[in-house]
């Protein structure tokens, strides 16, 4: 599904690269870059849509990513959504497909955000979550 939107795939990859290059903030639950991207989006979106709204979007994104990614159900089977909207159990072994799984999950989440909020608001939330980065083109 998301391969038809290469800009979302590229943007998801860029967000993961940004997070991989920076140390995790002290006290953050996830040290995996996908978890950190989701956490930053969670913080920005819960102010906008509430925690239930964000959890619904992330749950749907996880289901879409499992369907979209070859072997996605396997790569994402251990991932759980916690009540606070954060992820737990993201695969972390190098070469285990975790990078593609993270890209698929974030691209699906970006797609849902654009669908429900529009590109302008989505980009505003992304630029709020990653100040100093120039993030654009989600379609």
Structure, described:
With 139 residues, the chain is an all-alpha fold. It has one domain. The protein is built from five helices and two strands, in the order αααββαα. The chain has a two-stranded antiparallel sheet. A hairpin with a 5-residue loop joins β1 and β2. It is globular. The protein starts with 5 loop residues before the first helix and ends in a 10-residue tail after the last helix. The model has no long low-confidence stretch (mean pLDDT 82).
Short structural description:
This protein has 139 residues and is an all-alpha fold.
Total number of distinct structural domains:
1
Strand composition percent: under 5%
* Poorly predicted spans: none
Radius of gyration: 14 Å
Query: What's the N-to-C terminus distance?
Result: 13 Å
Question: Any key phrases for this structure?
Answer:
139 residues, mainly alpha, two-stranded antiparallel sheet, 63% helix, 3% strand
What is the secondary structure topology, with strand pairs?
Layout: H1 6-21, H2 33-68, H3 72-75, E1 80-81, E2 87-88, H4 98-117, H5 119-129
Antiparallel strand pairs: 1-2
């Amino acid at each position: 599904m998301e391969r038809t939107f290469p800009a979302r795939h590229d943007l998801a990859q860029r967000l993961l690269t940004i997070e991989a290059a920076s140390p995790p903030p002290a006290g953050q639950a996830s040290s995996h870059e996908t978890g950190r991207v989701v956490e930053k989006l969670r913080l920005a979106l819960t102010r906008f849509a509430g925690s239930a709204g964000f959890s619904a979007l992330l749950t749907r994104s996880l289901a879409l990513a499992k369907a979209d990614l070859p072997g996605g159900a396997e790569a994402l089977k251990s991932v759980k959504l916690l009540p606070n909207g954060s992820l737990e159990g993201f695969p972390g072994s190098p070469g285990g497909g975790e990078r593609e799984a993270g890209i698929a999950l974030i691209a699906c989440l970006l797609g849902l955000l654009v669908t429900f909020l529009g590109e302008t608001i989505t980009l505003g939330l992304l630029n709020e979550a990653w100040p100093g980065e120039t993030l654009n083109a989600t379609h």
